[in-house]
Write a structure and sequence with these properties.
- The chain is α+β, with helices and mostly antiparallel strands.
- It has helices at about 20-35, 50-60, 95-100, 145-150, 150-170, 195-200, and strands at about 5, 40-45, 65-70, 85-90, 115-120, 120, 125, 135-140, 175-185, 190-195.
- The two termini are about 15 Å apart.
Length: about 200
């Protein structure tokens, strides 16, 4: 079994965001971990924060295969409803994770990259079951922090609806899915799940 570390709270000053600093910090941590023989880095993240999902999955190529509803009891500005979290694993020694160690050209985030994708919901409306599709798309709010501040009832409804989907589909077991990318299409923002047996082999 590989050694692993827990990556604790990291933040970038609002005035310095969108310059790639978060990814740079994470990659520096991963390089240091690999140099010490540590091949797995864990952390948790709110599954409805699309910007964080873009960093974690689209840029760094981490995966989420664990789902923790109401993980934290506290409420604050960023968590005005129950603080659900994904358990995230980044494995930068693997071929998949290694691809997130370098900053290449901006990658395509279009949903069209996944032509066989099963879209499970549109907003709060459930559309279908995964039915064994190679990829699934789960819609989340475009700006979760703003939604919580502007419409708490809608935020509670989003949390409930997406928690129900995550509980059903996320996991490392056969037939379950690992969140491993994001996508955008026609103003909708999605988490992309890969069938676990296809991603993990």
């Amino acid at each position: 079994t590989s050694l692993s570390i827990e990556s604790q709270v990291m933040g970038v000053d609002p005035g310095l965001r969108r310059a790639g600093l978060a990814a740079t910090l994470k990659r520096a941590q991963a390089s240091d971990a690999l140099a010490k023989g540590i091949e797995v880095i864990h952390w948790t993240a709110d599954p409805l924060q699309f910007a964080n999902a873009t960093l974690n999955f689209h840029k760094l190529r981490a995966v989420a295969g664990e789902f923790y509803p109401a993980y934290y009891p506290f409420k604050n500005q960023l968590n005005r409803v129950s603080a659900t979290r994904f358990g995230i694993a980044w494995m930068p020694a693997t071929a998949w994770g290694q691809a997130g160690m370098v900053e290449g050209p901006r990658r395509d985030r279009s949903l069209a990259r996944f032509p066989d994708c099963a879209i499970l919901n549109t907003g709060l409306t459930r559309l279908r079951e995964p039915d064994g599709a190679a990829h699934i798309a789960i819609e989340i709010p475009a700006d979760w922090t703003a939604l919580q501040a502007e419409n708490l009832d809608a935020a509670v409804a989003w949390r409930s609806a997406t928690d129900a989907i995550f509980a059903e589909v996320i996991g490392y077991a056969p037939g379950r899915y690992l969140i491993a990318d994001v996508a955008v299409a026609d103003g909708h923002h999605y988490l992309i799940g890969y069938r676990s047996d296809l991603l993990m082999g």
